[in-house]
Each structure stands twice: as structure tokens, then as C-alpha cells.
Amino acid sequence: MDLKSSLLAMPLIAVSTLSQAAVVDVKITNLTQGIYYTPLLVTAHTSDAHLFEVGQTASSALQAMAEGGDISGLQTIADGISAVSSANPAGGLLAPTEYAMVSDLDTGSNTHLSIVAMLLPTNDGFVGKDSWEIPSEAGTYTFYMNGYDAGTEANDEIVNGGGMSGVPGIPANPGMNGGTGGSGVATASANTKIHIHPGNVGDQDAAGGMSDLDSRIHRWLNPVAKVVVTVK
Amino acid sequence: MAISSFAKRALAVAVMAAGLSACGSDDDTIVVLPPDTLDFEVTVYNDTAAQPLSPVVVGIHGATMSLWSVGLSASVPLETMAEGGNAADLAAMFTDTNVAVLGAGAIGPGNYEKLMISAEDRTEMKLSLASMMVNTNDAFTGLNAIDVSGLMVGDSMSYTLPAYDAGTEANSEAMGSIPGPADGGEGFNAARDDTMNKVSRHPGLVTQADDAMSVLLPDHRISGTVGRVVITRTN
């Protein structure tokens, strides 16, 4: 082993690695047929931080996002731990099959990426990725995201404008393609921790039935999103 | 930062430097000429409970061709396959150095088919395939532009098959609207009456489990994955 060459090479590599891994583009595509995303939060943070963890109880900030689409609480927490965030890259709702682009996010010394947004129309469903390690090699990387249930609200599937934490109901159906007068699908959340969303049920009755959602439009199969990360 | 990657690269540079100082030259380069024609074996597995897959089309093409894209409206050949299971028009889109083969028949649940395809070597070699889940209105599966140019002889790649919705026919599940054995109804119809005229992932099937008006049975339901594909380069 030529120790002298090795020692000479190391400082050069360190410099180039640092300059490559810090800036990323993130493209998020809504793969669903009939589900909208509320404003997305894309956050680069350290390995010990999480916006959510499956199997854990939702924080109040996550609950506010999942029940009403409000990402301000999560963003405040992220800002407080020196995370680097892009809030609302879609500039509002992200419609089915549309995509949002986060360009040139300088992650600094943060190594992990997390993404969340509420799914509409749902009671407390959200799309998300918990702590994806950003590769240090420049390149293009693809992963997919599932639909999760915050476990904080019963999935009654009644569209009544209820978007505040703890208030039953779905805040809105942006596609305006559902019904009214549903009697309610569920009255409680069986799993009160964050879990894979069981999916919407819906029905075919625009003026009654048990759900205000349409069973042939508002269901989904995982994954619900595709994410392409370009590490520059 | 990723320490392991950093260490690996530093080590690689160190080894390279050591090699250079030992040999002093690297002029023993071996030139390997690529073969003119590459052969691939493509095995398609149907992992559904009760959704036969229509005869598969497998094609090899260059970087500019795409059979579909989430968010864009389906081509008429794609619509024809996704609504009626006939992939002949899709296969006909492969011209010149782009080539396609069609499966011998439908692939039943639990079954698989091996297809052989050969194509001239090129810089960017992409493989696509498509097939309809026949007990649906317009659900299909497939792979779009998988890069096979880096595949060495004897090597394989595996992919799971997702469920797409062509966006060309409403998912009514109504009697007479589904071409597969569950209904024996209509296949292709040029009208486009889906919620949006765009390809997306499929929302899943409702069936009689949740709606008495559906012609489909609970076993016809699909999940996020409907099958697998193994691509092996054989020459």
C-alpha cells in the first residue's frame, strides 16, 4: 500500500464530496386517480429527526397537517432543529397525476429527507416519507410513498368542512365529485397510532348512503406518490 | 455526510495510486466488441387472485419512445389494449430498429409466460411491456422504458407490476362493460368518459362486496401489485 498517495488523495475527495451532496431537486408526482394533496412540506433534517413515525402516536403538529392540511406547526418544529424546508412547492393543492418540483434545495449538513401532505378527501389521511437517507453520490434516485392514517380521527367520510384538529369530518372534496348526506362509515379509529391508511370506502349514492365519497373515484392503491430526487 | 462512501472512495483512489506507482502504465487495455444482436428472455408472472392478463406486448426501443406517462392522456393503441385486451396496435408502434413481440395468449392467475425478444444493440436500449387486467373497465399493467443497456449476458432484473388506470373509460363495473370472463361485455369503445382523460395508478375495484350493481366479485379485487417480471439477457 502506498501510504503517501493515500494521504494525499483523501483531502481532495473530502472537498468534492461535500460540494456534491448538499443540493437536491425533488419531484413529487401524485399518482392517484381522484385524490388531491394539500400543501406539501419537504424537509431535509438530521438522522435523528422525524416528521412522523409509523407505529407512533401523531404529534399535534402532524395531526393538524393530517386533519386539516396545515403544515405551519411542522414547519416551525423543522425550523427549530436547523432543518431545511420547502413549504408548499405546488403553490396550493396538487391535483391527481400532477407533480410538484422543489429545485435546488440546499440541505447543508442535513442528511435525511422527509415529505408530508394531507390527502383530500380523507379524514386524517396523508402521503408521506419518513426520513429517507439522501445518497452522497450525485445521481437520480426514485422512491414511492404510501398513504398513511394519522390515527387521530374516525374515518367517517363525511364532507362537512371539519379541518381543525379534533373536529370530525373531511374539510373538503376538491374534485367536487362526491355526494352529500352520508350517515358515516366509521365512528372511531381502531388504531390510534400512525398506520397504513385502510383506504376510502365510498359508495354510489350521491344523496345519502354511508359515505360522501365515491367508491369508484376516491379509493386508491399504494403507492400514491412517486418521488424522484436528483442529488447534484 | 456518508462516511462509508467517503471511505470507499478514498480507498479506491489510494489503491489506484498504488497500482500506478507499481506498474507505471495502463496500456494493456482489452477491447471487447459488442454483439450485433442482443437476446432477452422476459418472464411475466400473474400474481392476482382472479384477473387474467391479456396477451402481453413486449418491446425494445430507444430513448424517445414511451407507451404511456402518468398525467398524460392514453394513446388510442393503449386505450385499445386497456379496454379490450388487444395489444396488436401497440405492437405496431414499434418500427425500424424498435421491435415488439406478442404473447401467445392470456396469462391466467398463478400462471406465467416466457417471451423471447431480440434487438440490435444500441446505446440506449429500453424495454417496455403492457397487458390488460381483463376483468376491469380499463386497468392495465406494464413496464415503461426500463433501461436494459447495462445488462450483461446471464444477468437478470426483476420488477413488480403496478396497476394503472388508462383514464379512458369510467370504472362503472357495470354489466356489459367488462370484456373479461367475469362479464363478457364490451371491450374497446372510442368514447372517453373517465373522471379525467389521463393515465394514473388504478384506484382499485369496488365489486359486489361494496356495491350490488357491480358485475365483479370480491376475488376480482386487485392490490397495488398484480405480478412480476424477470428480464434476463441470454445473448
Question: How does the SSE layout of this entry go?
Answer:
The complex is a heterodimer of chains A (232) and B (235).
Chain A: H1 3-21, E1 23-30, E2 36-37, E3 41-45, H2 60-68, H3 72-80, E4 84-87, E5 99-106, E6 112-120, E7 125-133, E8 139-149, E9 195-196, E10 225-231
Antiparallel strand pairs in A: 1-5, 1-10, 2-6, 3-4, 3-6, 6-7, 7-8, 8-9, 8-10
Chain B: H1 3-23, E1 37-46, E2 57-61, H2 76-84, H3 88-91, E3 99-102, E4 112-120, E5 126-132, E6 139-147, E7 156-162, E8 164-165, E9 200-201, E10 225-233
Antiparallel strand pairs in B: 1-4, 1-10, 2-3, 2-5, 5-6, 6-8, 7-10, 8-9
Key attributes of the depicted protein:
heterodimer, A: 232 residues, alpha+beta, 16% helix, 28% strand, globular, B: 235 residues, Immunoglobulin-like, 4-stranded antiparallel β-sheet, 3 helices
Outline the structure in words:
- The complex is a heterodimer of chains A (232) and B (235).
- Chain A is α+β, with helices and mostly antiparallel strands.
- Chain A is 16% helix and 28% strand.
- Chain A has helices at 3-21, 60-68, 72-80; strands spanning 23-30, 36-37, 41-45, 84-87, 99-106, 112-120, 125-133, 139-149, 195-196, 225-231.
- In chain A, strand 6 (112-120) and strand 7 form a beta hairpin.
- The longest helix of chain A is centred in the first third of the chain and has 19 residues, at 3-21.
- The two termini of chain A are 32 Å apart.
- Mean pLDDT of chain A is 92; it is low at 1-20.
- With 235 residues, chain B is an alpha+beta fold.
- Chain B has two domains: 1-34; 37-233, Immunoglobulin-like (Sandwich).
- Chain B is 14% helix and 27% strand.
- Chain B is built from three helices and ten strands.
- In chain B, a hairpin with a 6-residue loop joins strand 5 and strand 6.
- Chain B is elongated and about 75 Å long.
- Classes of the chains: A alpha+beta (232), B alpha+beta (235).
